[in-house]
Amino acid sequence: MPKIARLETFSNAYVGFVRLTTDTGDVGWGQLSTYTADITATIFHRQVAPWVLGRDALDIDGAVRIVEEREHKYPGSYRYRALAGLDTAMWDLRGRMEDKPVVELIGGKVQALRAYASSMKRDITPEDEARRLCSLRDQYGFDAFKWRVGAECGRDVDEWLGRTEAVIPTVARALGDGMAKLVDGNSGFSPARAIEVGHMLQDEGIGHFEEPCPYWEFDQTRAVTAALDLDVTGGEQDWDLAHWQRMIDGHVVDIVQPDVMYMGGLSRTLKVAHMAAAAGMPCTPHSANLSLVTVCTMHLLGAIPNAGKYLEFSIEGDDYYPWQDGLFEGDPFNVDGGKVTIPSGPGWGVTISQDWLDRSTYQLSEFTA
Question: What pLDDT digit, counting tens, does each position of 100-144 carry?
């Protein structure tokens, strides 16, 4: 039984990676959740690493459980953002030791996944958004697209006056027929305004309305879901399994969208996917940047029985996410005909860039008998 001997983090303010080394010298790599990852790295070494050093390196569920129990007074988002680094490193370790990709460890297979080109921008005119999405359609073969409406947590105040009314038809019509069309409200609307916007979306053939109301207000979102024929989706911010069960049992949304890193790793995300499957609901996870979260989501979608229609695939480059540049050796995100292929190498099938690691902040936790 290999034991966890060393846990190292390499981080900056935006993203952090975890290297797990066993007492037999085997290694696995994982990722802390993005955003304020420097703070998350501190939590990792204070509230995650101490409880798992010296434990069975292949007992992923046991490691997650012991951290949850020992840190029961701190059940919040940061703990799970840190726990994601451990969980994903343990899955990578197991895959490397068994010489299998993670997707096979969880009952799936390597395959090409349909992706939707996901825009993060609101500071873009409807005309410019339409032009860039059509360019991606023509260059990479995407046949599914998501763009933004309203303003993030906007309380019915648009990014600028009239943008929502303009961007919906401008982009939808420019993309043309035969395209899957999705929009994201980012908690921007009251129920009444969300329903109004939802009817605009339906009139333009848009079939996916993400997080229309403040995500923490279940009753508001449920009212929108009940009023519209398109799919209302959400859940990216949520990490509490009891919260997820209430969301699913109450049919707050039509499609669940857990984020592997916000959830605390693959193991807990699988639990949400299985809850949704039991209720007959699809799972289309949130993976809004090209870090390890998208790689992990690819493996997840290749295995779960209720995988949604597509993978979220960020189209934002260095101008929006400069911290994404140079995270990996090679390119695990090659798009061909609007699809990306799950990495087939052992574990997650990717290699963290040594140059990036050399420029990061380093911390170490080590087992002492």
Answer: 999 999 999 999 999 999 999 999 999 999 999 999 999 999 999
Distance, first Cα to last Cα, the chain: 16
Closest CA to 285 of 253, 310, 268: 310
How far, CA to CA in Å, does 304 sit from each of 41, 239, 249, 276?
30, 19, 19, 11
161 burial (CB, 10 Å; 0-12 / 13-18 / 19+) is exposed
Strand partners, 176: none
| Distance, C-alpha 237 to centroid of its chain | 10
pLDDT at 318: 82
Q: Which residues of the chain have pLDDT under 70?
A: none
b (16+ CB within 10 A) / e for 203-224: ebebebbbbbbbbeebebbbbb
Confidence (pLDDT) at 219? 98
Instruction: Could you list the beta-strand ranges (E) of 85-142.
Output: 112-118
Ordered domains of the chain (ranges, CATH):
4-99+354-366 (3.30.390.10), 104-341 (3.20.20.120)
